[in-house]
Design a protein that fits this description.
- This protein is α/β, with parallel strands linked by helices.
- The chain folds into two domains: about 200 residues, no CATH class; about 160 residues, Rossmann fold.
- About 30% of the residues lie in helices and about 10% in strands.
- It contains twelve helices and seven strands.
- Strands 1, 2, 3, 4, 5, 6 and 7 form a seven-stranded mixed beta sheet that branches.
- Helix 11 links the parallel strand 5 and strand 6.
- Helix 1 packs across helix 3 and helix 3 crosses helix 4.
- The N terminus is likely disordered.
Length: about 375
Amino acid sequence: MKKMKRLLTAVIAAALVIATIPTALAAGGIFSDVPNGAWYADAVDYVYEHGIMNGTSATTFSPNTPMTRAMLVTVLHRAAGSPSAATGTAFSDVPTGAYYTDAVAWASANGIVTGYGNGRFGSNNPVSRAQIAAILWRYAGSPSAEAGQDFADESSIPAYASAAVDWARANGVVNGTTGNRFDPNGNATRAQVATILRNYLTMTPVTPQPGPSTGSKILVAYFSGSGNTERVAQDIADELGTDIFEITPVTPYTSADLDWTTSGSRVNREHDNEALRDIALTQTTPANWDEYDTVFIGYPIWWGIAAWPVNNFVRGNDFSGKTVIPFATSSSSGMGQSGTLLEEMANGGTWQSGQRFSSGASDSTVRSWADGLEIGK
């Protein structure tokens, strides 16, 4: 969490302002358009004093100015170290050579921010409250959260943001508007962004406690390309004392196969041609499958989704009556819609939101998360 807070501080300080003008003045009360007692005044002071957001001039903050989608993905791209994308963007409204072109290609490839359909990204569209909740949730590692009190407009919250809004409300990151409404399609203004970031950076995370009843039998199933997911899977299995099962393709992936930077490599061919993603497994169903009440499914994130060798494992087993907890490893991207897409192709099961771990996550971080689930206790 400390690493994530430092990352978000760098992100927002870099570019969440629309026209940043440095100033050496003290934060308190210097902005003529931030009245004392305004609902966002304390948050503006906080983000200014901590170097997260500056004013749009020496004396104005522009609290009602919205952020655009292009600006936000550019910020996230820079925060991730400006990694190159495997291919350019196919969005019709993202011109070649724009300041945000590479960022959009990267964000799209990693499932961080998606387009609107019909080949449009919506570069200059304001970021909605649902979108910013989802993006912060992904940056937090897509943690699971129990659903709390519904907002009055709960039915209007898009499916992609449902878990994110539950998490944001449980942790006090994003609050409702007048009349207990979330207003998911409302623009995320600079005042709201300041408040959301202050809430996020000062929150004490709420740890949900999902899991089956005492005495349940647990399996950790995983596919690993470079070994990162295998290490996380082993930590979970060791911490919980579970069985473990490796999802193994009939034709294993070599280092050259996994080199996505090389045109024509196996993963690039499979990415470009979905027909090639039907990966045969040496064993699809683990022994004693019917005895397991809880199944963890681990995988690396490939192009914003679960590595496709797990698809046949998910399709080939009956998850009815089982609690399913996805977990993923990646260098920078979040879980995205990977767990949701696996759930859609699965036969039954109660699927949790899951957890994303960085490629270099420590053993203690993984074990602490697994222990916090309170499974079987």
